[in-house]
Amino acid sequence: MKKTVLFVALLWLYTLTASAQLVPLDADGRDSAYVENIVNRSQKIVDGLQLDDKKTARNVRNIIANRYFLLNDIHEANKDNHDKRDAELYKHHFELASALALYLNDEQIDAVKDGMTFGRLKRDYQATQDMIPSLSDFEKQQILIWLKEAREFAMDAADSKGKHFWFDKYRGRTNNWLSSRGYDLKKERDEWMKRTNKQ
């Protein structure tokens, strides 16, 4: 019992200490206009979280901005070596969620990921369900799993084109899978358009 109480106390102290520290912005040596653009982009994502604590909001903003800086550095340094680029991206991939976990819950971390990927996961998931209302719970779950996988890859893309590429790639996988399960996607899409036009 004493060990449990001590552990909880230490965990609380660690969390309190972490939240009191300011996450520095990795802006040294970077173009000021570029830094401003990234900070503003990151701030928009943070604004969507509606965090009450200003220090927490600033730390989260800096974590996101630093992530954008890191991704840019990796892509710029490895333009001619895709294997090294991919290895570096994988090496650092999980750092974002780990850093955010000091300040955000799982749902908020997902919101950050959505913000960094133009909300494609939610839009694509809803569109698929709207197009095929007869999807089973199992099929919906599988589609959502693939969209989350696509989001993880998209988060590490160099630009918006790269981010959309991953969702389009996984949409192709989803469509092939649904076709193999007997869905006539052209018919489903045509019926969806008819329903949409009637609204």
Shape from CA axes? globular
Number of helices: 10
- Mean pLDDT over the full residue set: 92
SS strand fraction: under 5%
- Radius of gyration, in angstroms, nearest whole number: 21 Å
Number of strands: 0
Distance between the termini: 61 Å
Could you spell the SSE succession in H and E letters? HHHHHHHHHH
Class from helix and strand fractions:
mainly alpha
Provide the low-confidence segments as ranges.
5-9
Domain count: 2
Structure explained in plain terms:
There is one protein chain. This protein is mainly α. The chain has two domains: 2-116, no CATH class; 120-198, no CATH class. The protein contains ten helices and no strands. It has helices at residues 2-20, 32-49, 54-77, 82-92, 95-100, 106-116, 120-131, 137-155, 160-180, 185-198. The chain is globular and about 55 Å long. The model is unreliable at 5-9 (pLDDT under 50).
How are the SSEs placed, and which strands pair?
Blueprint: H1 2-20, H2 32-49, H3 54-77, H4 82-92, H5 95-100, H6 106-116, H7 120-131, H8 137-155, H9 160-180, H10 185-198
Helix pairs in contact: 2-3, 2-6, 7-8, 8-9
Q: Nutshell version of this structure?
A:
The chain is mostly helical. It is built from ten helices and no strands. The longest helix has 24 residues, at 54-77.
Overview features:
78% helix, mainly alpha, 2 domains, globular, 199 residues
